[in-house]
Amino acid sequence: GVAGVLVPAAPGVLGCSKGMDCKIRHCRKAVDGYLLAQIGTTTDPRNCEERQALVEVLSSGMLLALVDCLGTLDFEAQKDAARLFSALLRLGTPTNMDAQIAAYVDDIPEVLEMLLEGLTVPDLALHCSQMLISCTKSAEIATVLLRGGAAPILIELVQNPNFDIASEAYSVLRELLLAQKPPAAKFLEANFDDFFSSFHTLLEVQNYFAQRQVLQLLVRMLLDQSFKDVMRRYVANERFLQIHMNFLQHDSNSMQIAAFHIFKIFVVIPQKSCRVRQILFRNKEKLLCLLDSFKSKAERGTGFARDLQVTLHELSRVEAPGRNPSASRPEHARLVQQAKQQGNVGHTSSKPPSC
């Protein structure tokens, strides 16, 4: 039957089977056919044959075997193995088996461990990256990845001198943090100090590609509603503010603009920490002069031009710690509302903290 096609001839020995490349290709086509048929739309997903096949695939250890055999396959067969792995994970949704697949991956940590290790091998990095990214499409498996320590491993690999390894690691890290935002946000809140201590090392390396990509990833996280609590903690940290103030002076326009989109949150958010307010006030004139020079980079009517206008206005109104600026003026309320719509930075009270 169909289930017989999907399971290996003997559990756990797919990597040693004769003609395994043909078998993998055959299995992939079968699973692709299931997905194209939209399983579960016309049949009960709890009783369909495809669900039973997936149950047997999990019990046979096929997912682990697919990962384990990658290094023994030629390039085309590796592509088929990666596609089959991803298709099997996708099959979990229409058959209501996402939780069972996540439990399998959690119970057999070697699956994700070998995929992360495979990222360090130039010939396997592309395929392991694709398989890991397919894991991030499931909130449950993404949670397993985060809990298993994937984030710091990926951050370290982004600094790898091999461009292909670094690039693939960054792609996985980006999807791990953005594909399933609720579990990612929960993880960052619980591991805030450790994560950003590691994450910020990517901004210290002398690698323009890595720095720009990391800044852009950070912008996407901090301006996303799902990460609002992470954002509030981030912009309360004066050391983080100083990092992005330095990047505002970078030689690259792209780096300056990326840093600006983070810096603006420190300025526009109504409730600032005392140290952040102090640094902004002490450097206000220099920052106003620097940001004013950004006007030449901003086309009139664009989002960047509007953000720059709002940031310049708010920065000019920053008072020394202990002084309470008039936070109820209509113009201020309008600007904060605009910033809120753009970046969700105005969810806290507009009353400054007492210093």
Explain how this protein is built.
With 355 residues, this protein is mainly α. It contains 21 helices and no strands. Helix 10 packs antiparallel against helix 11 and helix 11 runs parallel beside helix 14. The radius of gyration is 25 Å and the shape is elongated. The N terminus is likely disordered.
Structural descriptors:
disordered N terminus, mainly alpha, 66% helix, 355 residues, single chain, elongated
**Global outline:** elongated
Distance between the ends: 72 Å
What fraction strand?
Answer: under 5%
* Number of distinct helices: 21
Element pattern in H and E: HHHHHHHHHHHHHHHHHHHHH
Largest sheet: none
Q: Would you count the extended β strands for me?
A: 0
Helix percent band: 55-70%
* Gyration radius from CA atoms, angstroms: 25 Å
Name the average pLDDT. 83
Structural class, by secondary structure, is: mainly alpha
**Unreliable segments (pLDDT under 50, ≥5 consecutive)?**
1-18, 326-332, 342-352
